[in-house]
Amino acid sequence: MKIQHWIDAFRLRTLPLALSSIAMGAFLAAFYGGMRWDVSLLAALTTIFLQVLSNLANDYGDAQKGTDNQHRVGPERAVQSGKISASQMRATIIIFIGLSLISGIVLISHGIKGLDLRIGFLFLVLGVSAIAAAILYTVGKKAYGYSGFGDLFVFIFFGLLAVIGTFFLNTQILRWDIWLPAASLGFLSTGVLNLNNLRDIENDRNSGKITIAVRLGVKKAKNYHLLLISFGLISALIFNLLTMRNYLSLVWLIPIIPLFGIDLIKIKRITDLKLLDTFLKKLALKTLLFVLLYGGCLVLS
């Protein structure tokens, strides 16, 4: 079996978006004077394992349900195409569950040193929940991705938990204001999922995968996308205004508004939904760029 088949199945193009949340949490920790490289790098490694686990589980789950078929618009999937067998995919999913657990436990042990062990247990529960969420999106009879809850879970796990968890494990403190940039990453990550679902709307509808995009229809799903991106940037801006030390913290607005705005206009005008695949990739990369610019401005301010 070619290693390229596994690399394709890992869907490495999804990693920049997953790492964006960890980077935001680390930048916020640095802003408040408590960033730790060991914790941040372990958080990034754990997130990579979880994202690959999610990608493999989605490949397996959609193939089992028949959603991945000849009508699918996005990239070819490994199990559906026969490049990787279902049994091989199941075995690899188990391996990545193990890797995610091991990496997560090491991360927690580094992040809670000196704290009550009950806090470590809470993070362990959250970690196991993240693993379960990665798998159950498409796997199982009650896969939540097939009933319209994917957006909510992405908002929670890619936004709130990832950013706030990374911040806490770095600093060992909680602040109410970091919920704003955490929500920002949640909205932007949900925007990526919505574009994916909007691209696949016809095949999903025909396959019984009832996403938010399927429920809304194309026109309203595009409006929903506009709201997600807008709320993401507004949440980040509000945090700036509440914590602003000088105007340097707002410099990120200059490149980011046109970068996101131009794509929003183009997406609104698109009639061939296959073309959304390009914007999906761009939004994931632009989200990482946003985090780097935003976090850099915070730290430098």
Quick tags:
301 residues; 13 helices
Structural account:
- The mean pLDDT is 89.
- The longest helix has 29 residues, at 37-65.
- 75% of the residues lie in helices and 0% in strands.
- It is mainly alpha-helical.
- It has 13 helices and no strands.
- The termini are far apart.
- The chain has one domain.
- Helix 2 packs antiparallel against helix 8 and helix 5 packs antiparallel against helix 6.
* Helix and strand composition category: mainly alpha
Largest sheet: none
Strand content: under 5%
Outline the low-pLDDT stretches.
Answer: none
Number of domains: 1
Apparent shape: globular
Number of strands: 0
Tally of helical segments: 13
SSE string, helices as H and strands as E: HHHHHHHHHHHHH
In terms of topology, how is this protein built?
Blueprint: H1 3-10, H2 15-31, H3 37-65, H4 78-81, H5 86-111, H6 117-136, H7 150-171, H8 179-199, H9 201-207, H10 212-216, H11 218-243, H12 253-269, H13 276-300
Helix pairs in contact: 2-3, 2-7, 2-8, 2-13, 3-5, 3-6, 5-6, 5-7, 6-7, 7-8, 8-11, 8-13, 11-12, 12-13
Give a short summary of the structure:
The protein is an all-alpha fold. The chain has helices at 3-10, 15-31, 37-65, 78-81, 86-111, 117-136, 150-171, 179-199, 201-207, 212-216, 218-243, 253-269, 276-300.
